[in-house]
# Entry
Amino acid sequence: MFLLLLLWGAPSWAEQELALYPGAVHTRIGNELLIGGQYHRMAYFTTTDSLVKVARYFHDSWTKQGYPVVVNGDLRQEAVVSAFYTREGLQRAVVLRTHLGKTVGFTVLKDLWLYEKPPEASGRQFIQVEGALFNADVGSRDEAGGSRHRTQVVERGLEVVRQELVTRFTTAGYKSVRESGGRLDGQRTFVLEYARGAEQVLTTLVELEPSRVAISQTWVGTDRPDGMPNADAVRQAREDALRVDPMREKKP
# Structure
């Protein structure tokens, strides 16, 4: 019976498309995203229309179709409009924010019935930092390979977290590609890029407070036998270019 229900529900999910706002170009974010064990499809768009106008469009459109609709937010700087397709077991939502005089929207399609427990090895791509106050994983996969993203918040100093990550990356067999630091909106940051075979991990550290750090890690890997990290590809291309034009290195 469970298999029959799954097969009955799967075509409904496959046929459903993301909600669109008229006149705006929508850009997909990944393919099928697995967030918290549930399947999502996401896209973003921008428009010069006001946030209230965009929110009203989705609210009226989904209400006319007969679906329960919920609106949250101050409707000035942010808003979330959600509709629940109870028979299909789906939730449609649009998350809206105002930015530089425009409205930025993220449309989301979420499956409420299907849940996939992440495999035990799903987090092994990342270098785990102990004692996280917050942890969230997002995964995506296509024909060439896959990518995963992890966000964490830890109660430690920026330099301590950076050194812990450097040590753990080295122990795990990763090689450092580049490292940079600076300030973003007044907050100290570090960006660490490491590679291992056909895997890359890009880690961004942001000092939220003197003893609290946000960690954003993105892992990219490929199943292709000839897959290689971007850094190796760039390095190889540069060496090839220098062999063709030895003076290129000295040119501005």
Summary: The first strand starts at residue 27 and ends at 28.
